[in-house]
Amino acid sequence: xxxxxxxxxxxxxxxxxxxxxxxxxxxxxxxxxxxxxxxxxxxxxxxxxxxxxxxxxxxxxxxxxxxxxxxxxxxxxxxxxxxxxxxxxxxxxxxxxxxxxxxxxxxxxxxxxxxxxxxxxxxxxxxxxxxxxxxxxxxxxxxxxxxxxxxxxxxxxxxxxxxxxxxxxxxxxxxxxxxxxxxxxxxxxxxxxxxxxxxxxxxxxxxxxxxxxxxxxxxxxxxxxxxxxxxxxxxxxxxxxxxxxxxxxxxxxxxxxxxxxxxxxxxxxxxxxxxxxxxxxxxxxxxxxxxxxxxxxxxxxxxxxxxxxxxxxxxxxxxxxxxxxxxxxxxxxxxxxxxxxxxxxxxxxxxxxxxxxxxxxxxxxxxxxxxxxxxxxxxxxxxxxxxxxxxxxxxxxxxxxxxxxxxxxxxxxxxxxxxxxxxxxxxxxxxxxxxxxxxxxxxxxxxxxxxxxxxxxxxxxxxxxxxxxxxxxxxxxxxxxxxxxxxxxxxxxxxxxxxxxxxxxxxxxxxxxxxxxxxxxxxxxxxxxxxxxxxxxxxxxxxxxxxxxxxxxxxxxxxxxxxxxxxxxxxxxxxxxxxxxxxxxxxxxxxxxxxxxxxxxxxxxxxxxxxxxxxxxxxxxxxxxxxxxxxxxxxxxxxxxxxxxxxxxxxxxxxxxxx
Length: 659
Description:
Elements: E1 6-12, E2 18-27, E3 32-41, E4 46-49, E5 59-61, E6 66-70, H1 75-83, E7 88-94, E8 101-106, E9 110-115, E10 120-128, H2 139-151, E11 164-165, E12 169-170, E13 174-182, E14 187-190, E15 197-203, E16 209-215, E17 226-231, E18 236-239, E19 247-253, E20 259-264, E21 276-280, E22 287-289, E23 314-317, E24 320-327, E25 330-337, E26 342-344, E27 351-358, E28 361-367, E29 374-379, E30 382-385, H3 391-396, E31 403-410, E32 413-420, E33 431-437, H4 451-458, E34 462-467, H5 476-479, H6 488-503, E35 507-517, H7 519-528, E36 536-540, H8 546-549, H9 556-563, H10 568-577, E37 591-596, H11 604-616, E38 621-626, H12 633-636, H13 639-657
Parallel strand pairs: 33-34, 33-35, 35-36, 36-37, 37-38
Antiparallel strand pairs: 1-2, 2-3, 3-4, 5-6, 6-7, 7-8, 9-10, 10-13, 11-12, 13-14, 15-16, 16-17, 17-18, 19-20, 20-21, 21-22, 23-24, 24-25, 25-26, 27-28, 28-29, 29-30, 31-32, 32-34
């Protein structure tokens, strides 16, 4: 794990000759990730590392030969950060080599940056409505404000929901604001008001206007949002009239002044409803649906534990909106034109994780052919691999291909899944097995590289997994399990397990374990309360009680009513009926619980309740709590913690399945 390299954030320069991207590598000694900028020269067919400090995770092309990136490279800036002073320092570096030079610094913790011209930049950063922004204060006022914040750091005041966010901590009264920064004059100007929480911002072609997606709320954030047009010449913000409740994911102003947007009214399938693509009249708000028959998501939901960082999902180029979507068990790059024609751009199965588009071509970072992430370029409709950062894995390690298996679990319901055989499998031997369940539930497993699965196969286990109803990639009807958690999805999983056992008699059915995280953790908790067919279980970042989950987690107050269909005040019995905790007195399966202290998506209390219930009823159980980690422990947690997590799970299964 610590030798893998993860890629993210790929971008063409203006000429289309050079690609810049980020390479992340775990650093076990510092228990962190080192991130560097790399360049690929398409003309010469070579790549080279551009930066060396190891903190370069975000960048922008300034011009054909220079890159702008943020970093902390001096003790002064380190000390200022420790004091609580908000500042982001940007550096400029030539791709021809040489040291990076400080370009400018902004007195904000900048989240995104967009270049308007040689000197002007559009920024987003978080402000808090409950306290002044430091950059607006005099030096003495800043000292007083920082002292006040230090005095209050041992307690929190909550005034709205959500009051915290996974990966961010407490967020009550936080809003993302848009700013205009002039590097030549070092002048910073706020563009949006403090009460508007900005989710995304895209510039039009001549960079005179921007389309903003955001929302205003007091007390409770709703799941709908609105469009706003930002005029950069007058620095005015105008809300586009709402035409009924809507959730926008993306929006861009076209050349003729319309908005091409992706979003959903969530009217038929709730929060997980697949979005459509619309042309929006930015004066009236009227929406014209370009793709009424489109029935796929607009994101990559293919699971893997071998990514770090990300990339843009949407880009508007040459009158086409490009986007990543999951179709079946793979994610591909698609594009839709202003007439509503949707075209799939990439064809190989696997996962498109990040991409960029230029007049001269398309490049992307992906997981293909059971390899870890590499950079690919699309030429003449063929996908050509450019890099070999992780080629050594296929050459020096044994990687077994997942074998596809389809099982009919109900009339006309076909569940797709896979089985990985143990390394050095022999037909006349019996082997233990691990059944792993994905999160979401609206995500998918696919035939891509998954470290923990390959590790278990190398440790002598069969590993099998599938995409039950509730999963992404097969349309709204298939994904809709609202009010049905633990019913049809449970039936699919058990029927798939039966299909695996029938096709692979080498599996010792008396030595099978089950595991999963998030929704997979919920389902693991549910399974052990409804069957004793599994000899051991490992429940990760789980849900055990819909009553508590709905009112303690960052998404619970809207996720639970949507997915279960009730609240404690409308039908508490419905929530309890679908809660694994209700059936904990029936559990006979020894179970390991993995949880992170700062997981606010599936908060610690969910794991504690189930762990306590099993101990109360005399069932062997263990809970491993990871301090300083969140919901994404298995995917982007610190290297030592990720290794300890995998060791805990493997040793638990070894104890019960190999004895």
